[in-house]
Structures are given as C-alpha cells and as structure tokens.
Write a structure and sequence with these properties.
54% of the residues lie in helices and 14% in strands. It is an alpha/beta fold. The structure holds guanosine-5'-triphosphate (GTP) and magnesium ion.
C-alpha cells in the first residue's frame, strides 16, 4: 500500500495500470475530511477518531496531506508521534503524502491515494489537510463528510470565512473546548450557519465541542458524522458528491495531460514560432492559440 501511494505521489507512469486494476475493488470506504487552521488539533482529533473506529473493528486509513510547504516537516513529525499508539496496529494504515511532483496537484493525487486505501480494504479513511490554501480546502470538501475544526480565539471565525472553510463544513468542531471562549466560538459559528439558506431537507452543519487531547466530545462528533452519512445516503447527496469527486479527478488528470502536451509544444518551438508571428502582428493571439490547440 505504501509503495502504491508513492507511485501516486510521484505521478508514476505505472499509475495508469494500477488505477485500472484498483477500480473494481474500490468504492466501499467512507472518507472523512478534516481541515482547519494549523495547530487547531486536526491530528489529535484524527488519532482519537482512529481509536473510536478501531473500537468498532473498522479498518482505518489515515492520509495526512502535506501542503508542499517547507514548514510542515516538523508538523508531520509531530503527527507521527501522536499516531504512535496506532503505528503497530495492523488494522490501521497511516501515511503522510506530499504532492509536490504531481502535475494534477492535490485534486488528482488525493483521490488516487484514497482509491488505493479503499481497495486495500479500509472501511474508513481520514484525510487531514491544513485549511490554509484554496486547494487544501477543496480537497477536504471532496470527502463524504467534511469536518472543519476551529479553536477558541479571536478572529477564528473570520479566518475560516476567508479560507472558504465555512462553505465546505458538514460538521463543525470547536476543539480545545478546555480553553476560554469555546462557547462564544461555538455561538459565533452557529450564528454564521443560521445566516445561510436552509431549504427543507437540506443539511444544517452542527457544531460539536471537543477536547481532542482528552478524547472528550468524540462520541458526539461520531454521532454527528453518522447522522450526516445517513442524511447523505437518504438524500442522494452522497452519490452526488462521489460523482463530483470523480469528475474533479478526471478533469485534473485531463488537464495535467494537456499541460504536459503543451509543455512538449513549447519545447518543440511551436509556441515560439506562433508567438513571434503574434509579436510581428502577422496573426492575432486567438488564431495562434487555435493553431496550438489543433496540435495538442
Ligand atoms: N488544550 C488543548 N490542546 C489540544 C487539544 N487538542 C490538541 N491540542 C494540542 O494542540 C497542539 C496541536 O495539535 P495538532 O493535533 O498537532 O494540531 P493540527 O491541527 O494537526 O496541527 P497541524 O497539522 O500542524 O496543522 C498539540 O500540542 C496538541 O496536544 C485540546 O482539545 N485542548
Ligand atoms: Mg496535524
């Protein structure tokens, strides 16, 4: 499994064959996305969720997505320490993943890694991404249930709104509820949720308070995750989201292919020739672009 995920990370040419072989074996795992600001407690919550799912005898996969940041090395090391108690459990697979080399970026790499874990027999896969950049937030939103974590503290809600985190949340967690201000953060989020449109039958994201480091509130969190899964299944939104995830993946692969063909044209000098003609006023950029696309 680790080697297959390495193939995904490196966007190996072997992936095409691997993907073909995995396809009939995948489609069973439930994917939970966890996202939120750095240090909010995502890894601690993930570790606590692993414990909870192991108690139910579920096989669990954990994918910690490294946002290709030079600063994340320490954080990942921290994750490993927190995950230590699960490290020797054969029912748990833990992997942090970098996607620096992947042409399709996170939105192509993460679904492929998920398929590997799914086909390997994981019942639940937890995906942790730092909710800082657009693409990390988008990846979290590809999960069957997306958990957005916040912690008490000034401006948290505003930061979440900025990063587009509020829109992707199926369940909000106010972690570090042992600190002052947890109630007001929870109130603030509930207020923001109430400002949105809620047609009948739609999902209204609940707010759960947790102290992940002590495992408190985990039962409530699991209950809300299950409630969301039941709603998604009954409303058809679950299937819809899985189709959306597949569409994003196909699109990312297609775009990556186009980009690499485009790179080949650039390397072959076709772009330079057309650009020179545009610069001399012999042709217009639209016609030149059409010419380039015709060669793709
Ligand atoms: N007081 C308190 N501390 C907590 C709680 N949950 C986690 N922490 C601490 O907060 C720190 C960060 O926790 P992590 O789980 O690494 O947070 P993270 O969101 O995964 O961090 P990054 O992956 O670096 O973005 C650690 O020192 C945890 O022990 C909590 O409920 N209460
Ligand atoms: Mg972490």
């Amino acid at each position: 499994v680790a080697r297959l995920i390495s193939l995904v990370e490196d966007a190996s040419p072997e992936l095409r064959e691997v993907a073909r072989l995995l396809a009939p074996r995948a489609g069973r795992a439930r994917v939970l996305g966890l996202t939120g600001a750095p240090g909010v407690g995502k890894s601690t919550t993930t570790a606590a969720l692993v414990t909870a799912y192991r108690e139910k005898d579920a096989r669990v996969g954990v994918l910690a997505v490294d946002p290709s940041s030079p600063f994340s090395g320490g954080a990942l090391l921290g994750d490993r320490v927190r995950m230590q108690e699960h490290a020797t459990d054969p029912g748990v697979f833990i992997r942090s993943m970098a996607t620096r080399g992947h042409l399709g970026g996170l939105s192509a790499a993460v679904p492929q890694a998920l398929r590997v874990l799914d086909a390997a027999g994981c019942d639940v896969v937890l995906v942790e991404t730092v909710g800082v950049g657009q693409s990390e937030v988008e990846v979290a939103a590809l999960a069957d249930t997306t958990i957005v974590l916040l912690a008490p503290g000034m401006g948290d809600g505003i930061q979440a709104a900025k990063a587009g985190l509020l829109e992707v949340a199926d369940v909000f967690v106010v972690n570090k509820a042992d600190r002052d201000g947890a109630d007001s953060t929870a109130r603030e989020i509930r207020h923001m949720v109430s400002l949105g449109a809620h047609p009948p039958g739609s999902w209204r994201p609940p707010v759960v308070k947790t102290v992940a480091s002590r495992g408190e509130g985990l039962v409530d969190l699991l209950a809300e995750v299950d409630r969301h899964a039941a709603w998604a299944a009954a409303s058809g939104r679950g299937d819809e989201r899985r189709r959306h995830r597949a569409a994003r993946e196909v699109e990312a692969i297609a775009l990556a292919t186009l980009r690499s063909r485009m790179g080949a044209l650039r390397g072959g000098g076709e772009l330079a020739i057309l650009a020179a003609r545009v610069a001399r006023g012999e042709t217009d950029p639209y016609t030149a672009a059409d010419g380039l696309l015709a060669d793709l």
